[in-house]
């Protein structure tokens, strides 16, 4: 057996370590293919700084900044660096807020100018546009932005939460925080603050980092190249959000280092060969498998677009994969990761659509819902569900812990008279009994009934955004607090969401926490799984951005966004990969993927709607 080629890319890490010298910093750009170990390189880069400059950074009160794409990635890097305080890891939104938070006077003036501009743009569009829904939306926006502008001086301190809803007078939106940070970074004083606090800034997944903010950071680096190193990690072939900067890396300054990586440590040989084929026409980067990599197995399953029982068809695909790979884990419910393009496809397959669809229709709820941080749902996933689970299991310790922090019944006694404790505990017992009564004999109550019950017993405090719905059900006349139309839309959506049965909360939570078999094509960026099933269904996903029918069924017509997303999903597989495509013309798919050399004839299975397999 040939010796292991694991050290093929070690030069890249050595070059990066050399760049990260506080006395002679050099910026660098490490863009390498899937599974090439960029996260590992990022962690090793930080460890090299820890080893050489910990003391110097601590004494001067400076920190290395790292920007990750998700909170999960942030947690992982913090853990791998043992939560070292000289390294500040944050998402782009919290990084931006750390830069601008507290600069209230400047923020106010920026908002004054920006709101005036936005109102003027909306008025121009309104003057040109026709009556209809778009016009109604514009009018609502003009009214609410005008109100915000008029009351701007009342805000003393602006607020922002990278994961919250950011509602109310003082709150800034996610977009505003990024725009403000970008514009403030044009000011020499702001640049000085950034460079003074963070001599090194590393950005992971920078192909998807907000383009204007990235450009602002390039400008900071150009102005402070002797005191500041910017290090970018990423892969342009994995750019999947429109926010990212097009052509990143094409116009790099001369003095930037460009370390290279060629190995793919994650995927089996057959998957790497497919990745090289997919990537070939885009940038011709070729990856090499590890010497010890397994051969692996790839199959393309082509089904008619009219297939009625898609869940059944996908189960048949899993069974076929188990057979072909002799890997029984394909049979297990969570043995493979199944990637769908649109959250609703998972909601349908996992049965939590009634909970999901109403909230997903509201723009302001989308991000929170996707991430599991939306307060109206979080109340059920993080407070009610664990309480019901703990009570069912008779786990008094867990019940006590859950209620101690969030039950108004217990808060009363904490504030004042200790002699109230027995009465408070009796009230808690009663309230718990009432709540559990809803679930008796296997009942699955609607969320609104659970909410009303808890509101009535005061077992838990109800988040502000759920109160109008909860109140209206109890006393309709008390619900009218805020009459803005945007609020009406939100409240109506919450009302509909509350009609969903409670069991959907558990399934939704499993999904957003990554415990379910399903995830989205975009959501698995950066992750890896032994067995991956990529489900491609243009009709069901209903969007315009991606077309797998064109990618697989017709030569050369696919857009690059679909090609890149396909590369991302295929490159998650560590052992075996099943590609499932629903097509209007299965034979055209077969012909095309053989002609372009992506698959061998024996790797393609054309399935009948009845779920029989004929190759
Ligand atoms: N030098 C190495 N030796 C052994 N395994 C490695 C090495 N570098 C990375 N790996 C492993 O390879 C896999 C891929 O690494 P990593 O996730 O860092 O790649 P990546 O470049 O960030 O991938 P992607 O861009 O696809 O998200 C991981 O399982 C990691 O543990």
Automatic annotation (TrEMBL):
Positions of ATP binding: 32-39
Q: Name one GO molecular function term.
A: 3'-5' DNA helicase activity
Recorded hits in Pfam families, A to Z, give: AAA_19
**Keywords, sorted A to Z:** ATP-binding, Helicase, Hydrolase, Nucleotide-binding
Q: UvrD-like helicase ATP-binding domain: which residues?
A: 11-281
A GO biological process of this protein is: recombinational repair
Q: Which domain of life is it from?
A: Bacteria
What is the protein name given in its UniProt record?
A: DNA 3'-5' helicase II
């Amino acid at each position: 057996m040939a010796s292991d080629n694991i050290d093929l890319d070690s030069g890249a890490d050595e070059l990066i370590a050399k760049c990260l010298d506080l006395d002679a910093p050099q910026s660098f750009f490490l863009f390498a293919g899937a599974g090439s170990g960029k996260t590992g390189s990022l962690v090793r880069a930080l460890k090299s700084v820890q080893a050489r400059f910990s003391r110097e950074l601590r004494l001067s009160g400076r920190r290395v900044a790292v920007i990750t794409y998700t909170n999960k990635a942030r947690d992982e890097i913090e853990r791998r660096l043992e939560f070292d305080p000289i390294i500040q890891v944050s998402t782009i939104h919290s990084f931006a807020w750390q830069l601008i938070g507290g600069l209230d006077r400047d923020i106010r003036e920026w908002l004054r100018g920006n709101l005036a501009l936005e109102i003027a743009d909306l008025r121009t569009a309104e003057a040109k546009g026709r009556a209809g829904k778009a016009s109604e939306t514009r009018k609502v926006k003009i009214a609410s932005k005008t109100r915000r502008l008029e009351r701007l001086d009342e805000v003393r301190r602006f607020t922002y939460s990278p994961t919250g809803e950011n509602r109310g007078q003082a709150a800034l939106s996610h977009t505003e925080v990024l725009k403000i940070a970008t514009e403030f970074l044009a000011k020499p004083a702001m640049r000085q603050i950034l460079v003074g606090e963070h001599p090194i800034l590393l950005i992971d997944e920078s192909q998807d980092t907000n383009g204007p903010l990235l450009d602002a950071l390039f400008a900071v680096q150009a102005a402070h190249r002797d005191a500041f190193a910017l290090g970018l990690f990423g892969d342009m072939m994995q750019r999947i959000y429109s926010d990212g900067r097009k052509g990143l890396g094409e116009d790099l300054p001369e003095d930037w280092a460009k370390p290279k990586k060629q190995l793919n440590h994650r995927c089996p040989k057959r998957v790497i060969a497919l990745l090289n084929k997919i990537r070939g026409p885009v940038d011709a980067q070729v990856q090499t498998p590890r010497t010890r990599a397994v051969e692996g197995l790839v199959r393309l399953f082509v089904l008619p677009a009219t297939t009625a029982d898609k869940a059944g068809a996908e189960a048949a695909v899993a069974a076929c994969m188990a057979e072909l790979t002799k890997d029984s884990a394909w049979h297990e419910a969570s043995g493979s990761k199944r990637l769908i393009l649109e959250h609703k496809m998972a909601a349908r397959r996992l049965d939590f659509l009634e909970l999901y669809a109403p909230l997903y229709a509201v723009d302001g709820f989308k991000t929170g819902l996707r991430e599991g941080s939306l307060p109206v749902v979080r109340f059920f996933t993080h407070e009610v569900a664990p309480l019901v689970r703990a009570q069912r299991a008779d786990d008094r310790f867990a019940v006590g812990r859950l209620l101690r922090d969030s039950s108004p019944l217990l808060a009363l006694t904490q504030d004042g008279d200790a002699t109230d404790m027995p009465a408070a505990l009796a009230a808690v017992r009663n309230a718990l009994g009432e709540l559990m009564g809803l679930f008796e004999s296997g009942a699955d109550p609607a969320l609104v009934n659970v909410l009303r019950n808890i509101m009535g017993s005061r077992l838990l405090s109800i988040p502000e955004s759920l109160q109008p719905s909860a109140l209206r059900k109890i006393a309709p006349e008390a619900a009218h607090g805020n009459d803005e139309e945007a609020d009406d839309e939100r409240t109506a959506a919450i009302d509909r969401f509350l009609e969903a049965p409670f069991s959907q909360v558990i399934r939704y939570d499993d999904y957003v926490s990554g415990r379910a078999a399903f995830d989205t094509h975009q959501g698995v960026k950066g992750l890896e799984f032994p067995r991956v099933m990529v489900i491609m269904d243009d009709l069901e996903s209903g969007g315009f951005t991606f077309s797998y029918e064109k990618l697989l069924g017709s030569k050369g017509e696919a857009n690059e966004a679909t090609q890149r997303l396909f590369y991302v999903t295929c490159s998650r597989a560590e052992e075996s990969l099943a590609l499932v495509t629903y097509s209007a013309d299965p034979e055209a798919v077969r012909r095309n993927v053989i002609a372009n050399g992506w698959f061998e004839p024996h790797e393609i299975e054309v399935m009948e709607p009845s779920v029989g397999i004929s190759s």
